Amino acid sequence: MRCREARFLISMQMDGELGANQKALLAEHLQSCSACRAYAAAVCRTDALLRESLAGDQAPAGFFEHVMASLPDQPARQHVRRRARFLPGVAAAVMVLLVAGAWLWSSGYHRAPPAVETPIGITAFKVPSSENPGSSAQTPGEPRISAPLEAAQEHAGPNAAPKTAPAQRPARHPPRE
Amino acid sequence: MPLDEAEVIKKVLAGDRVLFGRLVERYQDRVYSLAMHVLRDPHLAEDVAQEAFLRAFQRLDQFRGESGFSTWLYRIAVNTCWEYLRKSSRVVPRDAPDGEEDGAVLVGGLPSVEERAVEAEQKALLWRAVERLPDDYRVAVVLRYVDDLSYQEMARILRVPVATVGSRLHRARMMLAQMLAGIGLGETD
Questions:
Q1: Domains in chain B, ordered, with CATH?
Q2: Distance CA A159, CA A174 (A)
């Protein structure tokens, strides 16, 4: 073992971090190396002095009282602040949604045309046909995705058309009451 | 009666603010000592130690108990120290001339018992040597001796690999040994 490595192990031994194998190797080296023995003795002395001097440190008088006086009422105050920072944004978003909902309601979107739900979940609207008003004019190749209208339908109340309309329903736009 | 820190923390989070004082009582000397030896300024150390406790209180709900409370608290204290060091841009003289050392001055003002005077002088010289260490080495030394922390705990506090902790302590000891040998305290080859 080289002296450089031995001194690293001496440091680890001071900190109680040395395994049994390394301890044995270090002991073997120290037996034959007076320079490392002297180094180990110096490090031991330094270690003892450092330990003693740090153990005697005390916080100044009044420290405890100052700390306790500086504490806020609640521990997680920063979290409260962080949440509070988002509150105006959330309130604004809710207001926008309410206004948009009211506008949709008043503009008659809730009386959306009847729809047919396809097996894959895409809502298709029936186009009225003059030749055969009772039959669906929707062809399989012409689906229309209408998620917003479908959503509006769900909120349309008792007068709204059912989500899945019977095939013979004739009009695209039901007459207003 | 031993202090059940987990229970104390639970109660503090439930609103018992005064109970936090038990934790302050337990750790105030060590946190102050840590700040004192890292910053080398008693007034600044007091401010930083207070700030560390305040931050610990404010963030107590973030303590998950994965490490000990002391490890978590020391991490806050070390980070607060780093912030102050960065703000003040303090540079530690790594190779100050040996002529600056004048530990003998301390002997005159100490108690008359010779052994205590010599010991106090040695400690003063030692800490002056510690103050000359680079910041990251000095923090490692202080953490090691402030609470007998393991490499694992120190690695958690400093957020570095365990091997880095061992390496920093080893280099710090080599530098200390050299500095102390230069002023007649300690011995190297």
A1: 1-90 (1.10.1740.10), 93-189 (1.10.10.10)
A2: 11
